[in-house]
Each structure stands twice: as C-alpha cells, then as structure tokens.
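Side project, low priority. Logging it here so it doesn't get lost.
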Amino acid sequence: GVNKSKHCSNPLEANFKIRSDEGKLLTDPRPYRALVGSLIYLTITRSDISFSVGVISRYMQEPRKPHLEAAKRILKYVNSTCDMGLLYKKGAEFSLLGFTDADLGGDLDDRKSTSGYVFSCGSTCVSWCSKKQDSVSLSTTEAEYKASTLAAQEIVWLRRLVADVFSVIHKPTKLLGDNQSAIKLAINPVCHARTKHIEIEHHFIREKVLDG
C-alpha cells in the first residue's frame, strides 16, 4: 500500500537519529530484511538513497518498529521519484571529478562516522559509496581524512578502468572536500602529534596527493 501513500521529498528526515535498541522488536523480521535487501539492490542505480539504505541495513539482525518505519519512508521516497534517473549525454566532455564528505560520530550505538563519495564523468555520476568507518574518529578532520582515503582508492581504480576501456588519463583527478584541515593534512608530509594515532592505511591519500 506504499504506492498509495503521501509523497516524500527525501529518503530520511534531516538530523535523523536511530538506535539499535530503540522501539519494539518486529515479530517477523523477514519482510524487513527482504525490503532492505531490495533497496540495497536499488542503490546500484540510485545514488540518492545510498546513505539512507546504508543506515537501515545496520539493523538486519534485530529489526525494530522505528527501523521498519525508516525503511518504509525510503520506499515512499522511491515511489515519489520514479521519474528521476541518471542521464548520460552523448558528446559530453570527458572529465573525472570526485566529491567526498563525512559526518562525525553519526552512529549513536558505536559513535563511528560514515564516509561518502561520488564521482562524475562527463554529464553525470558513475560511482558512489556510503560506508561506515571501521574505527572511531576523534575529530571532523580525522573523519573527513578517512573519507578522502576511501575516495582516493576509488580514483585509482576508476583511472585504471578508464585506461583499459578508453584511454589513459594524464591529468590529476580532482577530489573536492569541504574540510580545510583534512585538505592540509593530505598535502603536508609532516606527521603532527594530533595525527600520530591515525592508522597508516589512511595516509594513502597523502601519498597520492604528493604523487600528483
């Protein structure tokens, strides 16, 4: 009956917060799991629900009523935006461009942050991801720095893919972020006292920046 419900303009409410132990347990979790599984499949072509679906997929083991309501809202949003899609225009200028961002401690259960990136090539998006970070970040700088590392790995893969099927990209790929401290940390080869605790794997972005 969701197709007969009111229209939704966004998949999740602004500043939406949810916990794993909040609300009544669902008597039968199978419909919830089937719904979330279908929505995960839909994220292959719908970048706009990638984050919200990632959030509700964290509660597959013991889904509760608020989790189901959040999933239904995403479904209502999808039903309201069936005419939306990705348009790949013929003859558009070929240029790979990336955007990255992160929240700080967005998961109320373990206070881990969520990384996100999206890459456009020509007229529209070709790759996107929303993923919860493996470790707790102590600052927005650290959270965004980790998100940039995840995006940098995707850049390397995309450049190799383009080289295999099209031609080698000689220019550096732009990756845009909104945290000045994270940008300076990626450029500066000096390891400051405040960044000593950051795992070595996350300094991958710094190496790629220095390599151009």
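Brief comment: The longest helix spans residues 140-165.
Revisit when time allows.
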